[in-house]
Amino acid sequence: xxxxxxxxxxxxxxxxxxxxxxxxxAEETTAAETTTAAATEETTTEETTEAExxxxxxxxxxxxxxEVTIESEPQKIVSVSPALTEIVFALGAEDKLVGRSDYDxxxxxxxxxxxxxxxxLPDTELIASLEPDVVIASSIFSEEAYNAITDLxxxxxxIRDETTLEGMFDVIADVADVIGAHDAGEALVEExxxxxxxxxxxxxxxxxxxxxxxxxxxxxxxxxxxxxFINDIIVAAGATNAAADVTGxxxxxxxxxEADPDYILVPAWGYDAFLETExxxxxxxxxxxxxxxxxxxxxxRQGPRNLEAVELxxxxxxxxxxxxxxxx
Length: 328
Description:
This protein is an alpha/beta fold. It is built from twelve helices and twelve strands.
């Protein structure tokens, strides 16, 4: 009898164990299924959110008036413009660059990137071999190169030129959108806008005139007229453009002598010769040591470093304005 009772007890215990095991297994299975479903739902939600947040496909009307559609975020970019390359770096997207123009020289890391030729007519076969998702270029890009690259099925975006200093923000925003750096573009524009506003607020009160020398001598005199973004750089610094009365970039030595500006900005490569060449050597700014050697890329490439150009002028004008105030 005892043996029978013991057997029954063992059988009952085993049955309970099996039931408990099955129950636990069912609970674990249900929990696993719930976790998997939740993970799937979360992934689907993330993918849906990313799709909703994406600006692609993006259609951009370029400087030629062409509508270019970028289907998805580019992962490989060729920039055939020193100014645009600087902007790509400023956006923190340099890892996407697989090609750049021969004239790109800033920042230093740009020299680690494959050069593809000049800014107007690069090596299209070399560009094709890099398999870029998009090529970005300036309006100086030739139609021949444009057609050759687009015929290969590679989108080419000619970024629209701007004629004002604030237009530089639009250039940055356009580049950011095209290369997949929209958020970085918004952040950079916000930062630069605040910096420019501060520079303007701190601009000295002065009637100093500034002449920007782009070229001089036997091949002609060139400057930045009143309708250029370099004019805005001078004005933002608190000074007056000595060539504000002309449009475009062409000038004359006679007009420069007549204007006799307080300050002259000359590219470092032509600084010494400018001081020694007639009729420029007779200018008041030369005689009084107010000719400033500059990195012309700060002025002529539209991008974040334009604010350094504003600072450069502002510092020179402010220092002399303070001296004049003390002398008075």
